[in-house]
Amino acid sequence: MPERLGVTPPPEGDGQALPHHQVAGLGAGPANLSLAALAADELPEGIALFEKREGPAWHPGLLGAGTQLQTSWIKDLVSLADPRNRLSFLNYLVTTGRIYAFLNAQYDSIPRLEYARYLAWASGELGCVRYGTAVEQVDFQGGRFVLHGTAGPVATADHVVFGLGTRPEVPACFEDRDIEGVVLAEHLEGHLTTVAAKPYEQVIVVGGGQTGAECVLNLLQRGYRDIRWIGRRPWFAPMDDSPSANDFYRPTYLRFFQGLPEGVRERYAAEQTLTSDGVSMATLQQLYQANYEASLREGRSPVMMLPGRSVVEAANRHGTIALWCERDWGGRERHAARFVVLATGRRATPLPLGAGLLELMETDTSHEPVIDSDYSIRWKHSETNRMYVQNRSRVGHGLADPNLSLLAVRSAVILNSLLDRQVFAIRDEQMSTVWA
Ligand SMILES: Cc1cc2nc3c(=O)[nH]c(=O)nc-3n(C[C@H](O)[C@H](O)[C@H](O)COP(=O)(O)OP(=O)(O)OC[C@H]3O[C@@H](n4cnc5c(N)ncnc54)[C@H](O)[C@@H]3O)c2cc1C
């Protein structure tokens, strides 16, 4: 084992020894669970994960009936790098006794709820997650990282991996304002169980992506009959899941992409967005068919589609929410509803870096840490103490970075780098597309 992974004695802090870990992961979403799963056989102590949630959960408000993974279940936490790993999805199905029922259900895509259950199972098997521990700040003192929780330091580590995921992003006119009747998509399910359904009450869903489409469907299925769906793009764009689009989600393309000049990477990341952020074809068909069938039965379509509009102003006047939208082709229009659902995307959770630590890092023009091709942050003491970041660099590492597609591959790259040897071979040799 290389020296930088050597075990160092735990420090004394206020008379109390803090637990010390070789590698600590912040966040226990799929990214860090994948890393911990692949590391389990390679690091004697494994990886300690710190998770702010009180127990296992994966996007808990967004697992409603009919919601499915947009990624093949073969792309689980481990299989693309280590198909023999015991934490594969297949092993989860076999050991929980569900394999035959699952096979006979003949899914093209698995329910999101099943994926959440799989992650919870993997977390239990690993036993390395400290739940209910939000890491508020990371500092570097005396040759090690100190992780601070809400009530003081919780642990030290030689190396840290940030896997903090994303949080909802809302248009500027909703930011820092609590407008009554405006709910985030992830709270819609909870909201609907607390209010009496009023089918002819107007509802607006803002956000033309997968989550927005699912909110519209959910409302339709609950009997709402006056739904307006607002999206920024000029149409409710489907996700491109074609074979050629999927070429972007291969290790070979990832290496090609990482080697491109920044300007080209920026352009490609923008041009390839719909291979990741569009609405899945099945959801669009379901929605259009439900809307059409309702018009046959009831004489009018319950969903009004409003693409090409950006919400720029919002106000609650006497219990009605008014939204002003700028139209893509010019001019403004106003829409009103009793309640509004925001499904307007997600952005990276800020890294909880102490000011001293930030100063030791190389940053880019937007003051973000520079992330190398092995997902490590470029900083002063990286020879001895490593920091890695998952799911934070669309422009640096391509559209696969915020997705589950190459989860196991990214974990393998990080572990190879951390251990200074090729523990996992990443093979992707059968390419018909020539990139360079
Ligand atoms: C509803 C939904 C469905 C998706 N479906 C797909 C899909 O089908 N296919 C696909 O490729 N991608 C999908 N994605 C995108 C992406 O793959 C997921 O968001 C995925 O969960 C990202 O994994 P992650 O581990 O990076 O982040 P997360 O899953 O967000 O996990 C991060 C974890 O860090 C914790 N955390 C945050 N801050 C702290 C802190 N300070 N201290 C301790 N813990 C902290 C959070 O509580 C969270 O549990 C989906 C996204 C959403 C929102």
Automatic annotation (TrEMBL):
Catalysed transformations (reactions): L-lysine + NADPH + O2 = N(6)-hydroxy-L-lysine + NADP(+) + H2O
Pathway: Siderophore biosynthesis
Record protein name field: L-lysine N6-monooxygenase MbtG
SUPFAM superfamilies: FAD/NAD(P)-binding domain
Organism in which the protein naturally occurs: Kitasatospora nipponensis
InterPro entries linked: FAD/NAD-bd_sf, Lys/Orn_oxygenase
Entry cofactors: FAD
Record lineage: Bacteria, Bacillati, Actinomycetota, Actinomycetes, Kitasatosporales
Top-level EC class: oxidoreductase
EC number, UniProt record: 1.14.13.59
Molecular-function annotations in GO: monooxygenase activity
Source organism superkingdom: Bacteria
Similarity annotation: Belongs to the lysine N(6)-hydroxylase/L-ornithine N(5)-oxygenase family.
Keywords from the UniProt entry: FAD, Flavoprotein, Monooxygenase, NADP, Oxidoreductase
Pfam families: Lys_Orn_oxgnase
